What does this fold into?
Amino acid sequence: MTVTFPRISTPAGPVPDGAAPWNRQRHSQLPSHRYADVYARVEVPLAERDWPTRRLTAAPLWVPVDLRDGNQALAEPMDPARKRRFFELMVAMGYKEIEVGYPSASRTDHDFVRLIAETDLAPDDVTIVVFTPARRDLIERTVASIQGIRNEVVIHLYTATAPVWRDVVLGRGRDELTRLILDGGRDVLEFAGDLPNVRFEFSPEVFNLTEPDYALEVCDAMTALWQASPERPVILNLPATVEVATPNVYADQIEYMHKNLARRDSVILSVHPHNDRGTGVACAELAVLAGAERVEGCLFGNGERTGNVDIATLALNLHAQGVDPMIDFSDIDEIRRTVEYCNRIDVHPRHPYVGDLVHTAFSGTHQDAIRKGLAEHRARAATESRPERDIAWRVPYLPIDPADLGRSYDAVIRVNSQSGKGGIAYLLESAYEVELPRRLQIDLAGRVQQHTDDSGDEITAAEIWAIFQDSYCVTAGDATIELAGYETSESEGRGRTRIVLRARGEEHVSSHDGVGPVEALTAALTALGAGIEVLDLHQSSIGPGSDSDALTVVEYRHAGGVGWAAGRAGSVLAASLAAVIAAADLAEREPALTS
Ligand SMILES: CC(=O)SCCNC(=O)CCNC(=O)[C@H](O)C(C)(C)COP(=O)(O)OP(=O)(O)OC[C@H]1O[C@@H](n2cnc3c(N)ncnc32)[C@H](O)[C@@H]1OP(=O)(O)O
Ligand SMILES: CC(C)C(=O)C(=O)O
Ligand SMILES: [Mg+2]
It folds into this structure.
């Protein structure tokens, strides 16, 4: 079948100015000239910056906005049951400040706030945030919705401040917009200023494209109006409503505000990155280095367009650096199931920390390293007499221990055509507790590779085990030579083994003195013209416990070359004899394969 890509053609423009001779890329057809870089759109004020040399040493205050910003981005906004389930999850995880909705937007949002007011759904130590635009009627409705809530409440007022929004959306110049915002601030004070449990938050929406002096002017005006004080601090939340720049630019913008805001000790500096460029997490992390103390975002990054910043990734990034995120992720799969149910959006299998595949290696050298790393981890725990969950984690390719998140090691290694012997051995060890010698691992890996190359699919432990059995074991019905019986006895201080072989319908009985049963069997086979030389014999068991089967694998030489065979039985001796018989049988039937 011919596949054509009619709308894509190889760029064939002139060599770009200054291109290095080793770079043969050409100009594309994309009209990139239509877009201006961030420096042309907004002044980035900072000349001297402290954030690059700072370190993340403590968790900021996390504020999940899934029930508002995440919810407003859903094709089907959450129904009351979903909102409640999500809220309960956040409380259980340890979030202490939660934006619960936009009460003037919809009945569901309003009723959910009322539910909080009228029940004990929200523990006393959880602050409830409600969101409103700077419109008097909507502010009034918002304040009405929070009546009776005993918890601390934050009223979050927002208005866009960036030039395009001023010109195109709101139709107001800077001064006019400041008046609108202050009017909104005054309305908030009029309706809620006397409520002792209420604090205020202001967001200059699209802060990241707002002139820094204007952002500062509006924010300072709001903290003055609301009389921000250390006892009643005001939250100034500085959103990258649409992410437009590299994270260092956002960090500069935040540090500028951090250093220049009035009443800084009465301001909780908050950030709210979105993820349009895919760098929302980096923006939040650099913003915290730059002075932010509070981060708004969504669990696993739901939200408008490409989403809000993912506060689960942010928290677990801290965990992976040895900093307690102060939020419980010990059952991440349960958290994911709840979030998927509430949002009706699946989490991507590659999503950091939570995706189905993020603790899984398919590739051979990674598997080899992980298998060795896990073995080293177990051994070190035993040497130090400490629990595996407690000692330092240094398993290659796994940034954190999946067990921290309630995950098992079952999916850490999965096998396909990119895998190698280490991964295959790991699967057999995990599923059957079978340890194979290294050279047999290499032989088995070749057979598994042939299978996965043919199928193109992943292969399970059970399928690998089936390949193992097909390749190295001989079942009674298929055998060309059978061990019909054996007996060991003692005569005049010497061991004697009686062997009964059945081949081509005939029985052959022989007795062997002074040798062990395995040697006796190889001698009997040689007498029958089916001789093999046992080069190596490896005994182990299948599965744990005393009632597990014994497994013996032998490496043998025969006329056609060297091969492997295996026997499984209730006793070590029976398994060893079965392995030797299997070797003779395989040598007879498949000399080419085993060479
Ligand atoms: C970045 C963010 O996430 S902002 C939050 C966005 N979230 C939402 O919009 C979800 C909930 N929203 C809603 O349910 C509705 O938009 C409502 C109830 C708030 C308002 O609905 P409507 O009254 O029908 O107005 P509409 O949705 O068209 O909003 C646009 C109007 O609000 C004005 N406006 C927009 N934002 C603000 C603001 N923050 N402060 C004051 N006015 C604003 C616009 O200028 C426009 O005014 P105009 O009609 O005079 O031109
Ligand atoms: C905080 C508000 C205004 C917001 O969601 C945003 O700007 O993205
Ligand atoms: Mg937002």
